[in-house]
Amino acid sequence: MVGLDYGVAIGVLTGLLTFIPYVGMTIGMIIGLLVAYFQFGFSDGLVLTLLVFIFGNVIEGNFITPKLVGDKVQLHPTWIIFSLLAGGTLLGFTGVLIAIPVAAVIGVLVRSTLSNYKKSALYLGYPLVSIKTVNNSSTGDDVVEAEAEYMPASASRKENNDEVIKADNSKSSSDGDRKSSKRGRPRKVI
Hints:
Blueprint: H1 7-17, H2 23-40, H3 44-73, H4 77-118, H5 121-124, E1 129-135, E2 142-148, H6 169-174, E3 178-180, E4 186-188
Antiparallel strand pairs: 1-2, 3-4
Helix pairs in contact: 1-2, 2-3, 3-4
């Protein structure tokens, strides 16, 4: 690009060393600038070589690496960049080295917690109070009794037909603070 002797070899070496954050790019830039100095002296060639390394570092550090690493650890590139910045700010070079593994662990924990929450009774809208209709034999009328108990999310509505109030979908959809969930069960919107 600039006409630097051994430019391809220096670029390949720098690319192979970039798995070590900052160190690979620094070693490649030092070698490239030394070769440019001996080839061009203090001229435009040296400045252009420096600009190529700066441009390459910006592109690699802000776009290529976050995309490649983010796909492997299932993190968005923004989170990769944020974790590298936070790790470097908090722990310096050591923080940069451990930032992505720590962010990946946090990502797994958050995804697992969110998945468990979405399977919970709280998210699915199962009532914590079960309602029973009991026939009063002396008057012949039905009496409604309420019992406070936890109904797990895995409990089937079919097994508990007599204990759970069936929601009238038309009534729950017109009610402003209630919303029908995926399976037709009423769910209170918080």
